[in-house]
Design a protein that fits this description.
alpha+beta, Translation, Eukaryotic Peptide Chain Release Factor Subunit 1, Chain A, Nucleotidyltransferase, domain 5, 60s Ribosomal Protein L30, Chain: A, four-stranded antiparallel β-sheet, 12 helices, about 25% strand, globular
Length: about 375
């Protein structure tokens, strides 16, 4: 499983003197129950052959070749890949020792890049599209809490209420109907208070981005009264569901609702960006303007096209990135410029500045000229 910590670790990895291979593989199963990653790898076999002929400078002279990198990748796919997953990214130094594979339960586009640093854009796209959330299912005596990430159940917690002790003067004679109903209401409050404590512990331990609360309308409404304000604000969806519903069925029934919520959030964000950009108020539209705002540290929320790639250059001396063609850096005059994927650079900058990233279909943001942002100032 991947996490934002993986993304941060890859961004912070220091550039070495050897190129880095970033290989993204779609490991999903097709209609014939087959995985077709080997077709893509076979198509790129010639690229691997070229890599094997690269001469890499070393302290004592030069070293030619990358050994059996292609075979090592095939071996990992054969022996280490968990077939429950659908996506893989493999990072490896060309001619070096570093080899790291990350796998996850959602698919990615097949892609192979050799550059001076790990490519993290597709990984960021996965992480921002599928948030970590908690599902709370309850009735008046029982609560289950599911931890869900990348559409997969990570953990499941279950708690049952501890009944209130029966007073001694009731044991012999029993309850009247009125007293029994009053006692059950008190017991429900007792249970819900304990359940709310367990939900708060879950939030503190697992740090979900949002919560889903499921049960009867009455139980959900009453239970919310026992939750702390910060936990209340995390609830993004409520609905009916039996407390003992199988986890797989819970996730299947939730999926269309959560997808609709996500799409609505995307639309509202794009409408806000368009409105602000039209009034020239704390927003940018267009790749170059958005890139400039990023490099000035102004971006609060960055909007990029899914699977987008735009060629640009980066100044090797000051690090500034440009979409337009330049023969020398306008900031320091350096002519040492290297080709880069501007979208990749924008993702890195946004992550380093802790700006939110929203990916959208390219057609949906065509009027925003390929990229946009909400600004902090």
């Amino acid at each position: 499983m991947i996490s934002r910590q993986d993304l941060e670790r890859l961004i912070q990895r220091q550039d070495g003197d050897k190129p880095v291979l970033s290989l993204f593989l779609d490991m999903s199963v097709d209609s014939n129950n087959k995985r077709n990653h080997l077709v893509f790898l076979g198509q790129r076999r010639g690229d691997f052959a070229e890599l094997e002929n690269i001469t890499i400078p070393t302290g004592s002279g030069s070293e030619t070749g990358v050994g059996s990198l292609y075979e090592r990748i095939l071996g990992w796919c054969e022996n280490e890949f968990d077939e429950q997953n659908r996506g893989v990214v493999i990072y490896a130094e060309v001619g070096g020792d570093w080899f790291e594979a990350l796998q996850f339960p959602v698919s990615v586009q097949n892609r192979m890049v050799v550059s001076d640093r790990p490519v993290i854009g597709p990984l960021a796209q996965v992480l921002t599209t599928y948030e970590h959330y908690g599902v709370v299912l309850l009735d008046r005596e029982h609560v289950r809490i599911l931890s869900v990430y990348l559409g997969t159940l990570l953990d499941e917690l279950e708690f049952r209420g501890d009944p209130l002790p029966v007073p001694s003067n009731v044991k012999a004679g029993g309850y009247s109907q009125t007293r029994y109903q009053r006692r059950k209401r008190e017991e429900m409050k007792h249970f819900f208070k304990d359940f709310a404590t367990e939900v708060e512990k879950f939030v503190h331990r697992f740090h979900p981005a949002s919560l889903v609360l499921l049960g009867t309308d009455e139980n959900v409404a009453r239970f919310r009264e026992f939750l702390a304000d910060n936990v209340q604000q995390m609830i993004g969806h409520t609905g009916p569901m039996p407390v003992d519903q199988a986890a797989s069925e819970v996730l299947a029934r939730l999926e269309p609702h959560l997808r609709a919520d996500h799409e609505r959030h995307d639309r509202e964000l794009l409408e806000q960006v368009r409105d602000r950009a039209a009034h020239d108020y704390l927003a940018t539209a267009g790749v170059q303007g958005t890139l400039t705002a990023l490099q000035e540290g102004k971006v609060d929320t960055l909007v990029l096209p899914r699977d987008g790639q735009i060629q640009g250059v980066r100044c090797s001396q000051c690090g500034f990135v440009f979409v337009r063609d330049v023969s020398r850096c306008p900031y320091d005059g350096s002519e040492s410029l290297e080709q880069v994927d501007v979208m990749e650079e924008m993702v890195r900058l946004a992550q380093q500045q802790e700006a939110e990233i929203q990916f959208a279909d390219a057609n949906a943001i065509a009027d925003l000229r390929g990229a946009a942002a909400l600004l902090r100032f």
